[in-house]
Design brief:
single chain, mainly beta, seven-stranded mixed β-sheet, three-stranded antiparallel β-sheet, 19 strands, 39% strand
Length: 303
């Protein structure tokens, strides 16, 4: 994967590196950025630990960075990139997550990430850096909002919740098709490492698995038939306790709603510590109130 600067001689970067040129301001009539913001800025992915300073920029709603994503692999990929907008001292003032979909082998996708409005009195933003990158096969990426896959089923993960070492991530299944869809039991899961290879040695337990007290998770599974527009919910629960042994991190989870269903790869980043176990909730009908509460809480779904 390679990122190059648009409008400047392209410089080949190492694999998994990003460059975000042209941080600056853009007005409503789409003038070019001002002189201070027109210099190219290159930032590297966390795997290389680099960041490059930009000129100081005014902290207003027009701050942006343009980027290019080049797929040097052999299959189409969907990328999700977290950009941090920081002060010259490295303090993160804002961040934005951008999903770049279906980048074919050898292809380059270009885009612009905008910072948004900072609160009054906030420190000026002077840098843009890549904080996190994930990439999944394009045909396994969760669909964009409002898009229904050919299967008629949307599977997504939310951003979850964490407290005192306990982690919970919701899995959501929506029948966006035209026919009824039935699930019975638990989603099928594959835990994958950073190279999307299977991770061994983690027990996937049905229900809460004694990890914590979650009565709904330990109910006996029942068939759930979803009419078009209806949803079901499952989830993952774990603790990040670290004792003796090597901690296990799981950046990717491949999910099938049931046996034989098309896989969807989500990125909940499970920090399992040394516990070696993960609890899974059975599919249960998602009530309208639950869906509304999630929307009100501002928890977006993620790939």
């Amino acid at each position: 994967m390679r990122i190059g600067a648009r409008g400047h001689p392209e410089r080949r970067l190492g694999r998994n590196q990003f460059a975000a040129p042209h941080p600056g301001r853009r007005s409503g009539n789409r003038r070019r950025p001002d002189h201070r913001g027109d210099r190219p800025v290159r930032v590297a992915a966390p795997s290389r630990g680099h960041s490059v300073h930009a000129d100081r920029l005014p902290a207003d709603s027009g701050i942006f960075a343009e980027y290019e994503v080049t797929n040097d692999g052999t299959q189409a990929l969907t990328y999700t990139v977290l950009f941090d907008f920081t002060t010259s001292a490295g303090e993160v003032m804002s961040n934005k997550r951008e999903t770049v979909r279906d980048v074919g082998p050898g292809r380059t996708a270009r885009g612009t990430v905008r910072m948004g409005v900072l609160p009054p009195g906030a420190s000026p933003v002077a840098q843009v850096k890549v904080a996190e990158v994930t990439k999944v096969p394009a045909d396994e990426a969760p669909p964009a909002a409002g898009v229904c896959p050919s299967s008629g089923i949307r599977v997504t993960a939310d951003q979850g919740d964490a407290a005192m070492g306990l982690r919970v991530v919701g899995l959501h299944l929506e029948n966006c098709g035209t026919r009824d869809y039935t699930v019975d039991g638990y989603p099928r899961l594959e835990l994958l490492d950073g190279s999307r290879e299977p991770i061994e040695g983690v027990r996937i337990l049905r229900g809460s698995g004694g990890i914590t007290a979650l009565p709904e998770w330990d109910e006996r599974p029942r068939p759930v038939t979803l009419k078009p527009g209806e949803r079901a919910v499952s989830g993952l629960v774990w603790r990040n306790t670290t004792e003796s042994g090597t901690p296990v991190d799981v950046p990717y989870v491949r999910v099938r709603a049931k046996a034989g269903a098309d896989p969807v790869t989500v990125t909940p980043r499970l920090d399992l510590g040394t516990t070696g176990k993960l609890g899974v909730r059975p599919w249960q009908r998602e009530q309208r109130a639950q869906s509304g509460q999630r929307a009100q809480s501002g928890q977006p779904e993620q790939p």
